[in-house]
Specification:
A seven-stranded antiparallel sheet has the order 1-2-3-4-5-7-6. Strands 8-9-10 form a three-stranded antiparallel sheet. α4 packs antiparallel against α9. The protein is globular. The protein has eleven helices and ten strands. The chain is of the alpha+beta class. It has two domains: about 140 residues, no CATH class; about 180 residues.
């Protein structure tokens, strides 16, 4: 389980939302007519750098909009928040205002992060406005279907709206929380094993520590943990199988060490099997939606032929299963992963 220096060769292109995918999104209430688009937010006069609490450049900027546009933008963002959180019921934003609009200068989708505040009690929330990327949307859908997490997002043409996922960033958790004596290290290691397993099944890549969060839930006799992906830019694009295995990123070394120190081979395999059983349960309950998603994604170009060829050979070696060599798309690989889980769990 030792990490290696896994690298992503080049920036993944953004794939447009096809008519077939748009039809799927409408069927499952993911589409929405939005008053403000991603491109509207890009029209700002200037910006200023945003520093983190340590005084370092956060790589986020504060855009400055023309005075005659700011009210329209803020009103539109409040409507978007109402669509995201309450199916368009504007009563939930009656006492809310847009406090901050921040623009990210790195990453594939260059998101805007919106902070909205309730003026009655100062409670705030975040949501994101991004470029709509088809492969990212497929990642969000697979997360909704195959993981224990609910995903809340909307799409309108070239604009993607995502709910903020609360939690402690994985890199921050590793530095400041992993050694907490109140935390059971075996529980954290268990969650990393399950997370690692899900990523490979779903072909969700680049799960370095800063691309997932750790959620902490106090229970009546202990503290529970869940590791949850927050970045779906590298959904079944890369050809290197290690990109889809969180254990191989050097940024995740603290979690890997935790697993090596607190889990035996037997418990490691047990937690892998538990996650496979959970995935199987979700596949059975969402089989129609999963089928619809497969039928749409299998018709689209979401990576290169070279990456498909490399990955199916890597999967065949890793699982010692020649059936992977017959796959023609990334969707075929995910489907075979699921079929193999069904066979294994039934044994």
């Amino acid at each position: 389980m030792e990490p290696t220096d896994v690298r992503i060769s080049k920036k993944k292109p953004i794939y447009p939302v096809s008519a077939a995918l748009q039809k799927y999104l409408k069927s499952y209430q993911r589409d929405s007519k939005l008053p403000i688009t991603y491109n509207d937010l890009l029209v700002f006069d200037e910006s200023y750098p945003i520093m983190d609490k340590h005084g370092k450049d956060s790589l986020w900027e504060g855009p400055i909009y023309a005075s005659d546009r700011i009210e329209h933008i803020h009103n539109g963002l409040k409507v978007i928040y109402a669509n995201l959180k309450a199916s368009g019921n504007l009563r939930i934003v009656q006492h809310k205002y847009i406090d901050k609009i921040e623009y990210c200068t790195f990453g594939n989708t260059n998101p805007f992060r919106i902070r909205i505040v309730n003026r009655l009690n100062d409670v705030y929330d975040y949501f994101y406005v991004k470029k709509a990327d088809a492969s990212r949307i497929y990642g969000l859908e697979l997360e909704e279907i195959l993981s224990p997490n609910q995903v809340n997002y909307l799409v309108d043409g070239e604009t993607l709206i995502e709910e903020h996922v609360a939690g402690i960033p994985g890199d921050v958790f590793a530095k400041g929380y992993l050694e907490n004596p109140e935390y059971n290290p075996t529980r954290i290691a268990k969650e990393f094993v399950k997370f690692n397993e899900r990523c490979l099944v779903m072909l969700l890549g680049d799960m370095r520590a800063y691309n997932f969060v750790v959620q902490i839930t106090p229970d009546f006799d202990d503290i529970q943990f869940r590791i949850r992906a927050i970045d779906f830019d590298q959904q079944f694009y890369e050809g290197n199988i290690k990109i889809y295995m969180a254990q191989f990123f050097k940024e995740n070394l603290p979690y890997v060490k935790l697993c090596m120190e607190h889990l035996s081979d037997k418990t490691f395999q047990q937690y892998q099997q538990e996650e496979k059983s959970s995935i199987l349960h979700r596949v059975r309950s969402e089989r129609h939606r999963l089928r619809d998603l497969r039928d749409v994604s299998n018709t689209e170009i979401l990576t290169t032929p070279e990456n498909i060829e490399t990955l199916k050979n890597g999967m065949a070696r890793h699982f010692e299963d020649q059936d992977y060599l017959e796959c023609e798309t990334m969707t075929d690989l995910v489907e075979l992963n699921i079929k193999n889980i069904i066979r294994q769990v039934k044994l």
